[in-house]
Amino acid sequence: MKRIDLRVLIPAVALAILLVVYFSSHPRGFSTRVLTIWSNQSVLLVFAAFAQFFVVMVRGIDLSVGAMVALSNVIASYVLAGEGVSLVFGTFAVLATGLACGLINGLVVTLGRIPPIIATLATGAVFSGVALALRPTPGGAVNEGLSDAFSYAVGLVPTSLILILLAGVAFSLIMRRTAFGLEAQGVGSSEHSAALTGISLIRCASSHMDWAGCVRRFAAITSRWSP
């Protein structure tokens, strides 16, 4: 019989109790509007957490999360205001920026042999500076259709909640069923054992920080979409 992990069970039970108390005392309770507000507020944090998990799995940490999301929002404010092909290219431009920032973090940590906590603190300052230089005052816009999409619901389920659930399933499958995820688990469990099996520690750590950057860019995009 599989043992129950109290580190998972206790927070899950506590969250369930809080949700029951909240929804039972809220005037509108378990309504679509309340779920929409909750989901729209959570979607950014969910994707940021997924991105951080990529890094933590390979025994790293990334302190540039907020700076990268801020830079993404700035770029999104310039390139997500159009329609059609322009909007598609704008979305890819934001994601490509995330890959580039993640790659910078990965290369600084792996090739520069700098501890992640120091490297990402430094790159975070750089990303914040670039964001401030590009957008020194609040401004910019986003396509209204994208923003409206986060106010819709499929039945009683908000679209943002559906996105969170689908992302959770995809993330779980990636980490459990792909070489990418299994390598990360191996490195996280024992770097020495992983190296003996032929896993490149540098490639694994760099690729995970790279993809973490991309996921954070998606977090920024969804935050721009949210009304």
Descriptors:
two-stranded antiparallel sheet, 10 helices, 2% strand, globular
Q: Would you mind describing this structure in some detail?
A:
The chain has helices at 6-25, 32-57, 65-79, 85-110, 116-134, 144-149, 159-177, 179-189, 191-196, 201-225, and strands at 153-154, 157-158. It is mainly alpha-helical and 227 residues long. The protein has one domain (31-225). Helix 2 (32-57) runs antiparallel to helix 10 (201-225), helix 3 (65-79) packs antiparallel against helix 4 and helix 8 (179-189) packs across helix 10 (201-225). The longest helix has 26 residues, at 32-57. It is globular, with a radius of gyration of 19 Å. 33% of the residues are buried.
